[in-house]
Amino acid sequence: MSVRFEELAWRPTPIGEISLRRRRDPRLDQDVYEVKLDDEFLMSSLFTAGEVELARLGLAALAGDRLDVAVGGLGLGYTARTALADDRVAALLVVEAVEDVIDWHRRGLLPFAAGLATDPRTRLVRADFFAQVAGPDGLDPDDAGRRFHAVLLDVDHSPRHPLHPSHAAFYRPDGLRRLTRLLHPGGVFALWSDDPPDPDFEAALAAVFPIHHSHVVRFANPLTGGQSANTVYLGKLPD
Fold this sequence. Notes:
With 239 residues, the chain is α/β, with parallel strands linked by helices. It has helices spanning 49-60, 78-84, 99-106, 129-134, 173-180, 199-208; strands at residues 5-13, 16-25, 30-37, 40-44, 67-72, 89-96, 122-126, 148-153, 183-193, 211-220, 227-236.
């Protein structure tokens, strides 16, 4: 039987103290993995529908195969794992700002993400997604100007509630335009948000991407017995 609580990893970072913990939930009779930044919960293995749909919706908007995909934010690995489940994905670059998060996956601390770090299509890169997009070289530090068929982003709580003030500029039209230079024609940008659809961000998305949608992802909440929801924003360039 699992112990009731275990802190698996902890480290101070420039944006706060990040920790990974596992606890046994007696009501659900299962292990729950959670990530905290200081005293704030970032993610939980109980609530993964939005992360899964981020990859599913983003890739469903693409035609063709041999897809080159970038994921911003590794977290518990659900978005990256869902992307790898699509046989059309030929290469997956994961950009994660916190080295410890990458280390969790390399050390196998997250059993449901097994195989992500060792998949030959995967490359895990320690870098700041937002700084890379704003910089001259793009997302891949080893391949300046590399373009992708899809960029899937799950770092901040929402465009209105970023984890760090430096991220805010990305969610404006100029920030999104800088991202488009890293997409192939017909490429897709998809974004997870914990908030309902935001009219201001929808307007920014519409100013840059001719095709754009906001998808509300509803899922059962085992803690309340009701439903909760996330938002997945989608922007697509013309072919």
